[in-house]
C-alpha cells in the first residue's frame, strides 16, 4: 500500500464520519443563502469538501499534504462532483483568489504553533474573503485540552488494521500532544503489518483571545457557539465554533 493510501486509510478509518454531516449542517445554517463559493482550509482527504460540492457550492479545497489531496481528488471523481484542489499553506493564501466563504474545521487551527500563526491565518482569510464574506471555523476548548484530553487512550484492533492513540499534556499552556501508532497490513494475503508512528501537537486559547485576534484581522459581528449546536459555550463545552463576518 502506497504511503498516501496508508495514511488516508488510517485517517478515514478512525475519523467519525458523522462529524462531516454535522460540520456540513452547521455551515448550511450559518452561511448566507447567497453563498456560492467556498474555500475549505485543511481539507484533508476531501470528505467535507465533496459534501459541500454535492450541496451545489463551488468548492476549493486547500491542504498542505499532496498525499491527502491525491485521495481527495479520487474521492471527488468517485462521487462525481467537481472540486478544485490546491496544495498550499493557510499561513499564505496569496495565490488562491477570493471567496464568499472560508471554512476551517476539525480543529485544524489548533495545529498552529502560537498566537502569531493563528493571527496570520485570520489576516490571510480576511484578505481572501469578498466584502461581507463569512469565515467559519472550530477549535478545541480549553476544557477539552486541559481536562478531557490528558491521559486519554484509545485503541482499535481490526483484522487488517490496529490503531493506538494516547494523549499527554503539552509543555505550553493549553496544549496537548497526541501520540499515534498504527499497524497496517502490507498485503491482503500476507501476515506482515507495517508500523507507523506520528506525533500531533495542538494548542488552543480562550474565547477572548480568539475574539481579540479576529478583531485585529478586521472581522466584526463574530458569533460563538459550541459542540455543533447554535448555543453559547459553557465551561464544559468541548468544541468552539466561530462565525465571522467581514
Summarize the structure.
The chain is an alpha/beta fold and about 250 residues long.
Biggest beta sheet summary: 7 strands, mixed
N- to C-terminal separation? 44 Å
CATH architecture of the largest domain: 3-Layer(aba) Sandwich
Shape: globular
Poorly predicted segments: none
Portion of residues in beta strands equals 25-35%
- Radius of gyration, rounded? 18 Å
The CATH class of the largest domain, by name, is: Alpha Beta
Topology of this structure?
Layout: H1 3-14, H2 18-30, E1 37-41, H3 47-54, E2 58-63, H4 66-79, E3 83-87, E4 99-104, H5 115-128, E5 129-140, H6 142-148, E6 153-158, E7 161-169, E8 175-185, E9 193-203, H7 207-217, E10 220-226, E11 239-245
Parallel strand pairs: 1-2, 1-4, 2-3, 4-5
Antiparallel strand pairs: 5-11, 6-7, 7-8, 8-9, 10-11
Explain how this protein is built:
- The relative contact order is 0.14.
- The protein has two domains: 3-141 and 205-245, Rossmann fold (3-Layer(aba) Sandwich); 144-203, S-adenosyl-L-methionine-dependent methyltransferases (N-terminal domain of TfIIb), CATH 2.20.25.
- Strand 8 and strand 9 form a beta hairpin.
- The strands form two sheets. Strands 3-2-1-4-5-11-10 form a seven-stranded mixed sheet, with helices on both faces. Strands 6-7-8-9 form a four-stranded antiparallel sheet, with helices on one face.
- It has 246 residues and is of the alpha/beta class.
- It has seven helices and eleven strands.
